[in-house]
Write a structure and sequence with these properties.
The structure holds two protein chains of two kinds. Chain A is an all-alpha fold. Chain A has two domains: about 40 residues; about 200 residues, MetI-like fold (Orthogonal Bundle), CATH 1.10.3720.10. In chain A, helix 3 runs antiparallel to helix 8, helix 8 packs antiparallel against helix 10 and helix 9 packs antiparallel against helix 10. Chain B is mostly helical. Chain B has one domain: MetI-like (MetI-like fold, Orthogonal Bundle). Classes of the chains: A mainly alpha, B mainly alpha. At the A-B interface, helix 1, helix 2, helix 3, helix 5 and helix 6 of A face helix 1, helix 3, helix 4, helix 5 and helix 6 of B. Chain A: It comes from Rhodovulum steppense. Chain A: This is Phosphonate transport system permease protein. Chain A: Its main location: membrane. Chain A: It is found in: Cell membrane.
């Protein structure tokens, strides 16, 4: 045994500390792939940047509009179009609440059906299918179809948001049910409980706080989405914003945007607070 | 006296909550139902129920017109699809470039000034997050004119808030011991950042970026609806002329792209973390 104070590592004479910092191991080990990826990324970047076409004359004209927009944002005009803004806002808010409530109510059975530990296999497959379809389709695309089927207005928006809520809550609820503490379910089963009693006494108490938290979170998201689906005709504040921009009324558009930002901030903070209080 | 001495009818029954607690919960549910009914009435005030009752008929009609998809239209979709992917990727890169400095300004342990810069950075992040990329696109198209550039900027501006928020939370959660060790060697501020904080947040940074790229692919597919380039422009053109077989094909292409991007991002995140 050598009598050294310093730690000995292979490749170093005993008694010396490393004086240089060594780079931690690379993510991609093979040198060839590192260079190949870097060159590929560079080629792609050049190609992609090459496809951008900028019409500078149009941009010059637009810059003036941009200035007016910034001016409108700094000096928003709430009064001129207040009737339109308040109608849009009320539509958005009511649409948000009703679609969240209905969406959560529908997604509870679907979420239970999509949990592997409480549902038979064929129900599991159907419910997972519903969730996958709802999650894969964009809100905007769904809204286009619902507007085509149900006519313009808040009802199509309500259906769109409900449809999107089902996928979101259903998936998270199903994962939550799959993650429960099995011993409680075991204990309830041992008493000879029926399937409904199992759900009510073993599953529901465990997932309820999280379900309430998720619903509040979805309420928040639904409001944000309700500001967007109006662009394709599904009602709400998005329709007002779209109209204001089409009329080049940037001060009204600025007012709408400020209202959206304010409501999103308020709802984000209050839903965060409520979620902490519930859990 | 034990419980059995009390006659069965008078024995106390165990309840989960007190009477008042139960009443409060019932009142809460009642309030929610009342709020729902009230909102429902306001929302459906202007609904044309004729259209709603007609919907099953309309749906059958639409389905008969939209099927089968017009496969030959695929030739004209490759270019917009390439544009869509470019919008998403370049937009993500722009978002990363803008979000990284913002995140360091917004994190309470790295911010240079807690009083001025931190609130400003936080406001930028919240403002970017609360405006959907479609609304950003709407604004930018009216300023820059229709085209890919507006799409890239819209995606970038929306991504700033998302990446910035997750990254500054990651920076705030870094392990203080490692930073202290670096500080104890007499390192400068920049060296502390480079050797103490960056290595700790790098994995979550990659994860966040890839995650956002995946979301951006979905979002860039619809930006064309408001004129910001990509496959959405084709969708809008087909919708305007009611060419439903083309709409079906475009939606199938978007779905396939989304599935592929989700698979890629899942693989990459799995490899990193």
């Amino acid at each position: 045994m050598t009598d050294t104070a310093a730690p000995v590592s292979p490749g170093m004479s005993p008694g010396t500390y490393p004086t240089r910092w060594k780079r931690p191991p690379q993510m991609i080990k093979s040198r060839f792939w590192r260079y190949a990826l870097a060159i590929g990324a560079l080629v792609w970047l050049v190609l992609a940047l090459g496809t951008i076409e900028v019409n500078w004359q149009r941009v010059m004209v637009g810059m003036e509009r941009g200035q007016r927009f910034i001016a409108g944002f700094l000096q928003p005009d709430f009064t001129t179009r207040w009737r339109d803004i308040s109608t849009g806002l009320i539509e958005s808010l009511t649409m948000t609440l009703t679609s969240t409530v209905v969406g959560v109510l529908i997604s509870i059975p679907i979420g239970i059906g999509a949990a592997r530990n409480v549902a038979p296999r064929w129900i599991y497959a159907i419910c997972r299918g519903i969730i996958a379809v709802s999650r894969a389709l964009q809100e905007i695309i769904v809204a286009i179809f619902f507007v085509a089927l149900f006519g313009f207005g808040a009802f199509a928006g309500f259906l769109t948001l409900t449809f999107a809520t089902i996928g979101f809550i259903g998936k998270l609820l199903a994962e939550d049910i799959e993650d429960i503490d099995e011993s409680q379910a075991e204990a309830i089963r041992a008493t000879g409980a029926s399937w409904f009693q199992l759900i009510n006494y073993a599953i529901q108490p465990q997932v309820m706080p999280r379900l309430i938290g998720l619903s509040l979170y979805r309420l928040d998201i639904n409001f944000r989405e309700s500001a967007v689906i109006g662009i394709v005709g599904a009602g709400g504040i998005g329709a007002t914003l779209n109209t204001a921009l089409n009329r080049y009324e940037y001060d009204s558009a600025g007012a709408v945007l400020l209202i959206i930002i304010a409501i999103v901030m308020i709802s984000e903070y209050s839903s965060g607070y409520l979620r902490r209080w519930v859990q | 006296m034990s419980v059995t001495d009390i006659p069965a009818a008078e024995r106390p029954v165990w309840h989960h909550r007190t009477l008042l607690g139960r009443l409060a919960i019932y009142a809460g549910w009642l309030g929610l139902v009342a709020l729902f009914v009230w909102c429902w009435n306001i929302m459906t005030e202007r609904t044309m129920w004729v259209f709603v009752y007609d919907a099953p008929h309309a749906a059958a009609d639409l389905a008969s017109r939209a099927w089968p998809p017009r496969w030959s239209y695929m030739d004209r979709l490759w270019q917009p699809l390439w544009d869509t992917i470019n919008i998403a990727t370049l937009g993500t890169l722009l978002g990363i470039v803008l979000a990284v400095p913002l995140a360091f300004l917004a994190a309470s342990n790295t911010t240079p000034s807690r009083m001025i810069l931190r609130p400003v950075a936080l406001f930028c992040i919240v403002a970017s997050r609360s405006i959907n990329s479609l609304i950003w696109a709407l604004l930018l198209v009216s300023i820059l004119g229709p085209g890919i550039l507006a799409g890239i900027l819209a995606i970038g501006f929306r991504s700033v808030g998302f990446i910035g928020k997750l990254l500054y939370e990651a920076i705030e959660e870094t392990d203080i011991a490692q930073i202290e060790a670096i500080t104890a060697t007499g390192a400068t501020k920049a060296q502390i950042l480079n050797y103490g904080i960056v290595p700790q947040v790098l994995p979550s940074f990659y994860g966040i970026s890839v995650f956002r790229w995946d979301i951006n692919i979905r979002e860039s597919a619809i930006l064309g609806l408001v004129g910001a380039g990509g496959i959405g422009a084709q969708l809008q053109a087909s919708l305007n002329v009611l060419a439903w077989p083309q709409v079906t094909l475009i939606i199938l292409v978007i779905l396939a792209t989304v599935v592929v991007s989700e698979w890629v991002s899942a693989r990459v995140r799995h490899a990193i973390i």
